Amino acid sequence: MMNYSFLYQQIVNGYSSLPLHLLPGYSLPPLQLFLEVTYNCNLSCDFCQFLQSSDSGSMPASANRFELSIGECHNIVEQAPPTAVISFTGGEPFVKAGFADLLGAASERNKTHIFTNGTRIGGKTAESLVDLGSRNLLTPGLILVGISLEGLADTHNRITGRPWAYAKTIEGLHSLAHYKASKNRKYPLIELKTVISENNVRELYAIYQVAKQCRVDIFNVMAMSMLPQASRTGRCAAGSYLEPPPPVKPVAPVILEEQLRRIQEDAARSEIQLRTTPQGFDFREIINHYHDKRRLAGYRCYYPWYGVGISAYGDLLICPYTVTGNVREHRIKTLLNNRRARIFRKHLQAARIFPGCWGCCMLVPRKPRLPR
Question: Is the distance from CB of 116 to CB of 92 less than 8 angstroms?
């Protein structure tokens, strides 16, 4: 199978190099747009920075701010270049009323991608997602469904705070794989994502086996990020990209190394593709990350030149630390290259990388590399 992470690194590096060298401070239209449709969630994962959640899917507005309406989300999608990949995330997107219609509309004009906990995609919902699948990488449609699984049944349910979470997620995974097979569809690819923690480190290889049993295409081993993501909800300080984020809680290095080794050896004989988050981390770097051994020199961030994120409150971010304005007040095109955005890009270009970048999912190696 094509190595999508490696291809992605090559594309964004090449696309970003044009404005980097020819238009200092400016970016071209975004290749990827992340839209946080809500901060509500039906789970309560113990490591999530957007921890406030409820079964009813309601969350109090922060600092008198209110989430984007579904109509405002449609307007954002219409402003995205047709060539951009639109990634929907949250919170849990499927608790947002009207999200299915939003995803359908976006998938008619753009390539789309969703992050979900998978508890609400069983049965007919899974079939509808497969029907939205892109015919190939050159046409619009849903190209990737990323689903979180944080452990085997007991561990996952404990981490998510819901006794039914594991069963529902597995049901969603099986439903997607079933409809893909029955309709002979390649897309959307199914990605199973696991954030490493002291609670699940002994189960990583077993989770990988679950991924194989559920016929997923990609298994994503994720390093926990300590960047101040929840700052955009108003519930924590924004922090500074000039200061390194706090270290993650260590896990047993021998156990982590053994689990990752077993995964890597098995995947070499399997059709499943391994991915890491951050994209630039190999397994050795993930082990270092959990013991606060930081090596920023080999990494770059091109995200401000090819990507943009929009919070559930409408703030436009070209970096987790940098808001350039709000889409309720200005169009995306204006916010993308305003004075604040240009100053930040010039600063990053001069510095190459910031201390606060460590652990960010957008870190890439200075030279794209295939995973070993």
Answer: yes
Cα separation of 122 and 25, whole Å?
Answer: 45
Backbone torsion region of residue 272, taken as left when φ is above 0, otherwise alpha when ψ lies between -120 and 50, otherwise beta: beta
Amino acid at 42: N
DSSP per residue over 220-286, as a string? EEEPPP-S-GGGGGTSS----TTSPPPPPPP--HHHHHHHHHHHHHHHTTSSPEEEEESTT--HHHH
Partnered with residue 275 across adjacent β-strands are 220
Query: What residue type is assigned to position 196 of the chain?
Result: I
Q: Are 50 and 91 in contact (CB under 8 A)?
A: yes
Provide the residue-wise pLDDT of the chain in tens; the chain has 372 residues: 667 777 777 888 889 988 988 999 999 999 999 999 999 999 999 988 776 433 444 444 455 579 999 999 999 999 999 999 999 999 999 999 999 999 999 999 999 999 999 999 999 999 999 999 999 989 999 999 999 999 999 999 999 999 999 999 999 999 999 999 999 999 999 999 999 999 999 999 999 999 999 999 999 999 998 887 656 666 556 678 999 999 999 999 999 999 999 999 999 999 999 999 998 899 999 999 999 888 888 899 999 999 999 999 999 999 999 999 999 999 999 999 999 999 999 999 999 999 999 999 998 887 655 554
Yes or no: say if 113 and 86 are a contact pair by the CB < 8 Å rule.
yes
Which residue type occupies 43?
Answer: L
Burial class (CB in 10 A: 0-12, 13-18, 19+), 242: exposed
Place of tokens 């400016």: 26
Residue type at position 329: E
**H-helix segments, the chain:** 4-22, 70-79, 99-109, 124-131, 153-160, 165-182, 204-213, 253-267, 283-289, 303-306, 332-336, 339-351
What is d(CA 284, CA 316) in angstroms, rounded to the nearest whole number?
34
How far CA 165 is from CA of 77, 169, 170, 177, in Å, comes to: 30, 6, 9, 19
Alpha-carbon distance of 30 to 331, in angstroms, equals: 14
pTM score: 0.93
> Is residue 239 within 8 Å of 225, Cβ to Cβ?
no
